[in-house]
Amino acid sequence: MSATTERIFSGIQPTGRKHLGNYIGAIRQYVAGQETAAAPGDAIFCIVDLHATTVDYDPAKLRERVHDTVAILLAAGLDPERCVLFRQGDVREHAELSWLLSGVTAWGDLNRMHQWKVKREQIEAGTGGFVSAGLFSYPVLMAADVLAYRANVVPVGDDQRQHIELMREVARRFNERFGPPDVLVVPEGRIPEVGARIMDLQDPFSKMSTTSGGDAGRVYVLDEPDAIRKKFRSAVTDSGREVRRGSGKEGIANLIDVLAVVGGRTPESIEAEFEGAGYGDFKMAVGDAVAEYLAPVRERYAGLREDEAELERALAAGAGAAREICAPVLADVREAMGVAEPR
Ligand code: AQP
What we know:
- With 343 residues, the chain is mainly alpha-helical.
- It has 2 domains: 8-190 and 308-337, Rossmann fold (3-Layer(aba) Sandwich); 199-303, Tyrosyl-Transfer RNA Synthetase.
- It has 12 helices and 5 strands.
- The protein has helices at 20-36, 59-76, 93-102, 107-111, 114-124, 133-147, 161-178, 225-233, 250-263, 267-273, 279-306, 308-337; strands spanning 8-12, 43-47, 84-87, 153-155, 188-190.
- It has a 3-stranded parallel β-sheet with strand order 1-2-3, sandwiched between helices.
- α2 links the parallel β2 and β3.
- The longest helix has 30 residues, at 308-337.
- It is globular, with a radius of gyration of 21 Å.
- Adenosine-5'-tetraphosphate (AQP) binds at residues 12-13, 15, 21-22, 24-26, 156-157, 159-160, 196-198, 207-211.
């Protein structure tokens, strides 16, 4: 990567059933990043199976879901010839760098992470159940994922702002402590202007999420067109009649954003088009547009998912390419830290 080249990196959880928020906030950006990358090694995407082990999970299902997730990414347009697409657990450098970076990560910063704060409150209230240490420290692994590649751009949704801030802080602290020269690149988040936070269709004050909310509020990338239309028809809005954004109109604003993204338009043009239209017609239009937008992905997915040998072949090639980029960075990190190279 030259000084002016952009290298993007992003990780995605192997939850298998990705939702419209994941697609609009992240996956769509991955494909755009691949299109503009100067070389395949400048667009790097990782299925983060190690992150998935911080909560209760079924090992057999994890393997399956990695395959589901790769197939979705390929169906969305990622091309292993034009980007680096791999499984985190295949590249040992991630776990190793995570440990090394934990020495320059402030405990207080981790203790302030939003997701951890929620867990901490549950622990304090005695309702947390088993909480793994990994749930506290996984942001360090996220930092390692990105910093191992000296990526300078991280395409993500709005919910990842705090994680990006932490990885920037870790990179800065590492460089201050062990430089000069700077060993790590301080990355920037790339958060889309429209669609960075797609909201739950049944609760427009909460983001569309894998782990909270119900299926009615969450549109899956692989949902059948009729199911998609039905979810949009039942989307919670407000008691008004105007298709515009504004206070008290969070549900409608969310639908405007969704239609803007899938139609490649601005929210303003949608407000203008639907001026005077009823909510029913508007919701129908959004449902139709999303069903049409996701249909080709769902259709391609079926064929890709059934060829597991090919998915594994693509992941293995991706892991090899990833290692070629991150192994020298790890060597530099060890050298700067005075830690021996493995014999
Ligand atoms: N609602 C959303 N709107 C826009 N972007 C979103 N992302 C997640 N939700 C939204 C972005 O999707 C990317 C991949 O997320 P992930 O696979 O790491 O997350 P996940 O755990 O499968 O999905 P959720 O819904 O984000 O999980 P919960 O809410 O259950 O913890 C990320 O770039 C993310 O910003």
